[in-house]
């Protein structure tokens, strides 16, 4: 086959066609140079914004240069896999303090294995149908600046909330990479930033985790606190967490570009009704139930005890029957370590304080002379 054909856009067209056939929703190709983004990463680390995620400090040389990760790499194929589930009533769940809010990406199947399997299939197909090549696939599993590579490959632009945005999918998608030694033509379509003067994602953050646009302080981010953070969650951040017990989507839910997002791959649709679970019900799970109902789920990353620690804070912020919730919390005291006990005791104190405040408010409220009369039916208003 003519070598010039390998450098033509026809190759990209065939690659894109195969990627879509495998279930990816977008694909782009770029060179592996990320040197212009290294100083930003170093400043982020120096600021301590990575918290206890010490792996960001390791292998900085590989993050600076992907060709050291996979010698011989000439191109990075970046792919997008949409995950937005349908009919999850995100806002209704967030507004109900007695329900557990689990980030939309974690309601269904863990994407890592699925992403790698499809990327491996894509790489093998390329060897068989286009030209033999050496390649490795990654899915959030290597020291790669994947958002910057995806931006260079034309998959979108990085928003002020530090997530990649696409006009067709908002930010409800996963990224994966295939590093190849084949000199593919690079994508010539690139998205310019379309955030404009909008700061909705920054303003909505419950814990003020954005010190500036395009900067995330992970130590204040609820996603970090409920998944990666080890030890007690800082007390000042517990009430702002509300009912968010695994991850947080606030900065995505408010983003105008997410209005245009299509429903994602069925593999990521909710399992075990995780999108409609009361906090008390989840806190009542035994470890065996947790393992059974989270098999193949991102929730496994937190683990059973960490999940309980998050749920305890959620229960401390709940508004349901105080006595019943306290009994539920006390059922796990002394069973799973000091951090869970600390969260449980904080939650009990918060519930009791709220109950006392409500009692005082009710006692001081003026009594109506017509208190015996029934409230009007909605149809009478």
Core attributes:
381 residues; alpha+beta; four-stranded antiparallel β-sheet; two-stranded parallel sheet; elongated; disordered C terminus
Describe this structure as you would to a colleague.
The protein is an alpha+beta fold and 381 residues long. Among the domains are: 3-88 and 104-180, no CATH class; 278-351, no CATH class. Helix content is 38%, strand content 9%. The strands form three sheets. A four-stranded antiparallel beta sheet has the order 1-2-7-4, with helices on both faces. A two-stranded parallel ribbon has the order 3-8. Residues 368-381 have low confidence and may be disordered.
List the helices and strands and how they pair.
Blueprint: H1 3-6, H2 9-21, E1 26-30, H3 38-46, H4 60-64, H5 66-69, E2 75-82, H6 90-94, E3 101-102, H7 111-129, E4 135-138, H8 146-152, E5 157-158, E6 164-165, E7 173-180, H9 200-204, H10 222-227, H11 238-241, E8 244-246, H12 250-253, H13 279-283, H14 287-293, H15 304-316, H16 322-330, H17 338-364
Structural class: alpha+beta
The 3D shape can be described as elongated
N/C terminus separation: 78 Å
Q: Roughly how many Å is the radius of gyration?
A: 24 Å
Low-confidence stretches: 368-381
| Fraction of residues in β-strands | 5-15%
Instruction: Please give the share of residues in helix.
Output: 25-40%
Strand order of the largest sheet: 1-2-7-4
How many β strands by DSSP? 8
Nearest-integer average pLDDT:
91
How many H/I helical runs? 17
Order of helices and strands: HHEHHHEHEHEHEEEHHHEHHHHHH
Describe the largest sheet: 4 strands, antiparallel
